[in-house]
């Protein structure tokens, strides 16, 4: 007799399982497709066919619109690169106005050129700003940029991180890039400009997301998108506890399936799902008249 109570030995070959296949009435794709969605953190690149590829992912998951940008992803860059990257986004939003919301990028240390580029991008139909790690969000070079974004009621969306140590060594907050914006940088600039709208990028990027949530809790003009390829089981529930249901924004950062599933897997009610998938971000866009109907 085995520990489980089954007879073992010569008769084992005659044992027949009476277990029946388990059927489930849960239709995951029906659940996915029932919610309106705006992706608050999407990108396209210069590769041939990339626009179609991103739209294919969006179509499969019922994402109506994608807020796209093409920041310069190195530590340095030129203003000529800025223009080239913004032109890519302008072309995409003009080709697919029903699917894409365009965010421009800048390197604000090019002070005069940045203000001129804001005007060009606004005139071309852009709806917000996406910065990377050439300059911290609270650097004084950002002040005139943020003031223009306030004038246009646009989101200041920044690459951000607070690391827990990488590559066998640790710098402050574990960040390897000296100009990567941290929670403290966001707190500083959001306090200086309480009328501005700030978006903390990718809670699921693999950093210390618990610290990010706790640090940014009491700053109502800082919102966070849920994107990223790291999917700790309680990330969304934890973020909800600290940010609340009105300051979380659905985003993918190109991790489409993971980013949809983490919202569905969280302990959210119907109203909270609708807010995070669509309403919260649309309400921010509405401030400047960039919202989805």
What does the average pLDDT come to?
90
Number of domains: 1
CATH fold-type name: TIM Barrel
Spans of at least 5 consecutive residues with low confidence: 1-17, 166-170
Strand percentage lies at: 5-15%
The largest sheet is:
8 strands, parallel
Q: Could you say which structural class the secondary elements and strand pairing correspond to? A: alpha/beta
- As a whole number of angstroms, the C-alpha radius of gyration is 22 Å
CATH architecture: Alpha-Beta Barrel
Structure write-up:
By secondary structure, the chain is an alpha/beta fold. It has one domain: TIM Barrel (Alpha-Beta Barrel). Helices cover 38% and strands 12% of the residues. The protein contains 10 helices and 8 strands. It has helices spanning 28-33, 50-60, 79-95, 111-123, 143-152, 183-192, 209-216, 235-243, 256-265, 270-286, and strands spanning 38-43, 65-69, 100-104, 128-131, 155-158, 197-200, 222-225, 248-249. The protein has an 8-stranded parallel sheet with strand order 1-2-3-4-5-6-7-8, with helices on both faces. The longest helix is centred in the first third of the chain and has 17 residues, at 79-95. Residues 1-17 and 166-170 have low confidence and may be disordered.
Give a brief rundown of this model.
The chain is α/β, with parallel strands linked by helices and 293 residues long. Helix content is 38%, strand content 12%.
Helices and strands, with pairings:
Elements lengths: L27 H6 L4 E6 L6 H11 L4 E5 L9 H17 L4 E5 L6 H13 L4 E4 L11 H10 L2 E4 L24 H10 L4 E4 L8 H8 L5 E4 L9 H9 L4 E2 L6 H10 L4 H17 L7
Parallel strand pairs: 1-2, 2-3, 3-4, 4-5, 5-6, 6-7, 7-8
Helix pairs in contact: 3-4, 7-8
């Amino acid at each position: 007799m085995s520990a489980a109570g089954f007879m073992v030995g010569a008769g084992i070959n005659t044992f027949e399982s009476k277990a029946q296949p388990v059927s489930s009435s849960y239709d995951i794709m029906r659940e996915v497709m029932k919610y309106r969605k705006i992706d608050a953190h999407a990108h396209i690149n210069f590769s041939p066919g990339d626009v179609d590829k991103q739209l294919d992912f969006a179509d499969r998951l019922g994402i109506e619109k994608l807020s796209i940008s093409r920041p310069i992803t190195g530590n340095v860059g030129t203003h000529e690169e800025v223009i080239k990257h913004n032109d890519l986004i302008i072309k995409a939003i003009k080709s697919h106005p029903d699917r894409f919301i365009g965010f421009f990028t800048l390197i604000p240390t090019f002070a005069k050129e940045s203000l001129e580029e804001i005007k060009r991008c606004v005139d071309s139909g852009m709806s917000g700003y996406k910065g990377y790690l050439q300059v911290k969000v609270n650097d004084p070079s950002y002040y005139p940029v943020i003031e223009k974004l306030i004038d246009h009621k646009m989101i200041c969306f920044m690459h951000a991180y607070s690391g827990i140590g990488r590559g066998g060594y640790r710098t402050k907050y574990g960040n390897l890039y000296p100009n990567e914006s941290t929670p403290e940088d966001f707190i500083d600039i959001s306090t200086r400009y309480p009328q501005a709208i700030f978006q903390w990028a990718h809670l699921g990027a693999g950093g210390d997301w618990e610290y990010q949530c706790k640090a940014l809790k009491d700053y109502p003009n800082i919102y966070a998108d849920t994107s990223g390829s790291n999917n700790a089981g309680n990330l969304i529930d934890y973020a909800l506890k600290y940010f609340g249901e009105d300051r979380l924004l659905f985003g993918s950062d190109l991790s489409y399936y993971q980013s949809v599933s983490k919202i569905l897997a969280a302990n959210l009610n119907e109203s909270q799902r609708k807010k995070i998938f669509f309403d919260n971000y649309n309400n921010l866009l509405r401030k400047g008249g960039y919202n989805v109907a």
